Amino acid sequence: MALPNSEFKNKKNLMNRETVSERIKRRLQLNEIFKYVFLAGLVFALVVLSTLIYDIVSKGAGWVDFDFLRNFPSRRPEQAGLYPALIGSLWLMLLIVPMVFVIGVGAAIYLEEYAPKNRMTSFIEVNISNLAGVPSIVFGLLGLTIFVRVMELGNSVIAGALTLGLMSLPIVIVASQEALRSVKMELRHASLALGASKWQTTFNVVLPSALPGIITGIILAVSRAIGETAPLIMVGAATFISTTPSGIFSDFTALPIQIYNWTSRPQAEFQNLAAAGIIVLMTMLIAMNSVAIYIRNKYTNRH
């Protein structure tokens, strides 16, 4: 069967050594151009990040000391501290982590290991992925409506923790599902072949192997939640408070709220205090990520 003229010419060009060399040369040139474009983007991002960090450290490093960590907020900058906000953030962390671990990982295990693969399951997974990208202010409005007003929890620690936990759940579920999918099917089949039940296989084989990825997702979600301001403003976290929470139903404030309060002041000293608060918040986030990396590496080496 004779080939059309166009196909014959294309095949003839592909067999032409000069044409092939020219095309390869053009592709290598494009590769070099895009490599330098991406490198320029990376350098630009690093320069902006370094500038921001330098500005924050230069303004706030001199204000970070033991008194700053233990003092209560004050209208006098030299006496102001963030002790209530620091304790409030710790309360939120202690409440959010168990919540997202139990509910988020449990939902991921059900969707990945037990739920039937049908349109309803696909619909639920797509909506969970979409919820992971919803702006935080939407979760703040949801928390204000459900937890503060309907459940009458008020401006309490538990209301803030439930709102931030609700915001973190989609991220944890998606990350946990990906971690569970990365476990090889051979491990499941071997466990089932030895007589283990479905739950025993999931709990003793699949979950430990997926734990590094799950922990990474939880830490990323909690890190995002601890740095959020909009949801806490919506649920009524106090911008100025002179007491620390005594329970889950106590009024509270958090580091982002305190930083936001200081940045709204016109005095230059309060801007320096806000920079010092950002340094403390970044230190907490770095410490959390360091613990996550240590746990992830430990379980990765074990499994």
TrEMBL record:
Asked if the Swiss-Prot or TrEMBL record annotates the protein with the keyword Transmembrane, the reply is: yes
Keywords assigned by UniProt, alphabetized: Cell membrane, Membrane, Transmembrane, Transmembrane helix, Transport
Query: How is it placed in the membrane, per its record?
Result: Multi-pass membrane protein
Q: Tell me the superkingdom of the source.
A: Bacteria
TM segments? 33-54, 82-111, 131-151, 157-180, 201-226, 273-295
Q: What is its main location?
A: membrane
Pfam families recorded: BPD_transp_1 (PF00528)
| Location(s) in or outside the cell | Cell membrane
InterPro entries, per the entry? MetI-like, MetI-like_sf, Phosphate_PstA
- Tell me where in this chain the ABC transmembrane type-1 domain is found: 86-291
According to the record, the signal peptide region is: none
Under the heading PANTHER family, the entry gives: PHOSPHATE TRANSPORT SYSTEM PERMEASE PROTEIN PSTA (PTHR43470:SF5), PHOSPHATE TRANSPORT SYSTEM PERMEASE PROTEIN PSTA-RELATED (PTHR43470)
Q: What's this protein's family per the entry?
A: Belongs to the binding-protein-dependent transport system permease family. CysTW subfamily.
Protein known as? Phosphate transport system permease protein PstA
Name the lineage: Bacteria, Bacillati, Bacillota, Bacilli, Bacillales
